UniProtKB/TrEMBL annotation:
Gene Ontology biological-process entries: cysteine metabolic process
Catalytic activity: (sulfur carrier)-H + L-cysteine = (sulfur carrier)-SH + L-alanine
PANTHER family recorded: CYSTEINE DESULFURASE (PTHR43586), CYSTEINE DESULFURASE 1, CHLOROPLASTIC (PTHR43586:SF8)
UniProt keyword terms in alphabetical order: Pyridoxal phosphate, Transferase
Keyword Transferase appears in the UniProt entry: yes
Protein name per UniProt: Cysteine desulfurase
GO molecular function terms attached to this record: cysteine desulfurase activity; pyridoxal phosphate binding
Keyword Transferase: yes
Length: 406
């Protein structure tokens, strides 16, 4: 199948609009991606014609909603290469997923002095839940830093593990530098040591094919809004053995079999970890988005984005007054940069006047910012619908910024 970026762009209504009188150049995909018409239409159809609560009714609308909602579990399993759809737990996103693992799996098992190994590249969502355990239970966080290019050596991660290391939690792809981590090598080495691995797939699953069975991880979290689906949707793959070790995360409907005055009997996984009325329409929308991605082919998407990365890298490297953070050879099409004389927020504001949407700030990665010696960067993060022409618009706008602030 040939990847036709023009046809893909036509699927996204928002890409046809203007911002400040200029064509929208949306380069904030690392924060949240736009939604294709097929997702928008599917969610509208559910609200207009099919909506009802799931699992609780025997009437027609409830049956339709339940069938569509539960059908997404298989879609997620297929997208992630999970052996069994019952190893998929629905969440509101990666943040909830990691908090679930921290609360349900780690908290009951870790004691004061036990260790969790993190990379310096982690998003706050894969840092703060472990700080909870540090504050409340005396768990020790061990940090592994990247090299000068922004690469993370799997051997360094494994070398940081000691006899009291109980978990490795690592991103597959940095949301700041675009660095791709060899998580399979980490998982292989960790398995030899008997250490479970949690992979934050918020960015990785967007930009490359994923197969958790081949990867060998114990937990793999994704968030729907970065995968061209709706916000408030997500999922986590949990290896069956780990599921059996987990206590319930929240209490309420659907995660129980029976409740009496004196006792409660819990449902089987994955329902055991899904309390209350879920994000029904959001989850259905995520399933449609994942089907859309698989229809295009994740390897086709990855190849298109590699071309964008190479083109953008060559263009940005030609701006000798621009400092690009992280020069990993195999990085994704994510570029964080600074410019002497201009704050990242100023760059973002000027770019916006030209219709170009980029992110500015610490990108929820303050330890990495400190490691790189910066307080904030501007970030251009590309998606499958971006083009080389949009790279040129970014470069032209940055040259204007250099003239303005230089």
């Amino acid at each position: 199948m040939t990847f036709d970026v023009g046809a893909v762009r036509a699927d996204f209504p928002i890409l046809s609009r203007e911002i400040n009188g200029k064509p929208l150049t949306y380069l904030d995909n690392g924060a949240s991606a736009q939604k294709p018409r097929v997702v928008i239409d599917a969610m509208t159809r559910v609200y207009e014609q099919e909506y009802s609560n799931v699992h609780r009714g025997l009437h027609t609308l409830s049956n339709i909603s339940t069938e569509k909602y539960e059908g997404v579990r298989g879609i997620v399993a297929r997208f992630l290469g999970a052996p069994d759809e019952e190893e998929i737990v629905f969440t509101t996103g990666t943040t909830e997923a990691i908090n679930m693992v921290a609360s349900s799996w780690a908290a009951p098992r870790l004691e004061a002095g036990d260790e969790i190994v993190l990379s310096i590249m982690e998003h706050h969502a894969n840092i703060v839940p472990w700080h909870f355990l540090r504050e409340r239970q005396g768990v020790v966080i061990k940090w592994v830093e990247t090299d000068a290019n922004g690469d993370l050596d799997p051997e360094a991660v494994l070398a940081a593990c000691g006899p009291r290391t109980k978990l490795i939690a690592v991103t597959q792809l940095s949301n700041v530098t675009g660095t791709v981590v060899d998580v399979k090598a980490i998982c292989d080495g960790a398995r030899d040591k008997g250490i479970p691995v949690l992979v934050d797939g918020s960015q990785g699953a967007v930009h490359m094919p994923v197969n958790v069975a081949e990867m060998g991880c114990d937990f793999y979290a994704i968030t729907g809004h970065k995968l061209y689906g709706p916000s408030g949707s997500g999922a986590v793959y949990i290896r069956r053995e780990r599921m059996e070790e987990m206590r319930p995360f929240m209490g309420g409907g659907d995660m129980i079999r029976e409740v009496t005055r004196d006792a409660v009997t819990y449902n089987d996984p994955p329902m055991k970890f899904e309390a209350g009325t879920p994000g029904i329409v959001q989850t259905i929308g995520m399933g449609v988005a994942l089907d859309y991605l698989m229809g295009l082919g994740m390897e086709n998407i990855a190849a298109h984005e590699r071309g964008l990365r190479d083109y953008a890298r060559a263009k940005l490297d030609g701006l000798n007054w621009l400092q690009v953070q992280g020069q990993s050879a195999g990085k994704a099409a994510i570029f964080s940069f600074t410019m002497a004389g201009a704050h990242a927020h100023d760059l973002s504001t000027v770019l916006d006047k030209r219709g170009i949407a980029v992110r500015a700030g610490s990108h929820c990665a303050m330890p990495l910012m400190e490691h790189m010696g910066v307080t904030a960067t501007a970030r251009a993060s590309f998606g499958m619908y971006n083009t080389e022409a949009e790279v040129d618009r970014l470069v032209d706008a940055l040259e204007f910024c250099h003239e303005l602030f230089g």
